[in-house]
Amino acid sequence: MINLWTKSPKLSVYHPWVFTNRYYRKEEREMSYADIRSRKKSASELMNDGKRQLHTADVVDRVLTVIDVDAIMTRNGRCGVISFKEFPDSFYFAGKVLTEMCDEFMADKDAYADLKAGNVQIIISKAKSSSNGNDYITFEYVTDEE
């Protein structure tokens, strides 16, 4: 196509590809979860259709049983995904500290087996809030020993 203003063979500003944005393409808006997972390879099985995302307020200061962990790549980097026994139709995006916990469990097969069996309980606590409104959290393992 020739640009009528410059007579150059470059793409015209009116060419349809110039206005195409990947977020507005019809085929991506209508993709199913399975399509996204197969195409981008970054979605987690813990984030299946119908599950809702938990927020920090939902999980803070509670004893939670971790039943599965995973990790995904986001535009901000690696992020852990956690599933809790107390919230079977939900998942939680982990921050840096909990993502490191997820990585440790995924690296150790015996620890991961304990986790899948429901033997790992944690308490998530709010450490502090930043000036931009982000909550920094920490966690500790719950043990039977006193």
Helices and strands in order, then pairings?
Layout: H1 26-29, H2 33-40, E1 52-54, H3 56-59, E2 63-74, E3 77-84, E4 87-93, H4 96-107, H5 109-116, E5 120-129, E6 135-141
Strand content: 25-35%
Number of helices: 5
**Helix and strand succession?**
HHEHEEEHHEE
Largest sheet: 6 strands, mixed
Estimated helix fraction: 10-25%
What integer value in Å does the Rg equal?
22 Å
Approximate shape: globular
Mean pLDDT: 76
Q: Based on helices, strands and strand pairing, what is the structural class?
A: alpha+beta
Short summary:
The chain is 25% helix and 32% strand. The chain is of the alpha+beta class and 146 residues long.
Q: What key phrases describe this protein's structure?
A:
146 residues; alpha+beta; six-stranded mixed β-sheet; 5 helices; 6 strands
Overview of the structural elements:
It is a single chain. The protein is an alpha+beta fold and 146 residues long. It has a domain at 44-141. Helix content is 25%, strand content 32%. The protein has helices at residues 26-29, 33-40, 56-59, 96-107, 109-116; strands spanning 52-54, 63-74, 77-84, 87-93, 120-129, 135-141. Strands 1-4-3-2-5-6 form a six-stranded mixed sheet. Strand 3 and strand 4 (87-93) form a beta hairpin. Helix 4 (96-107) crosses helix 5 (109-116). The chain is globular, with a radius of gyration of 22 Å.
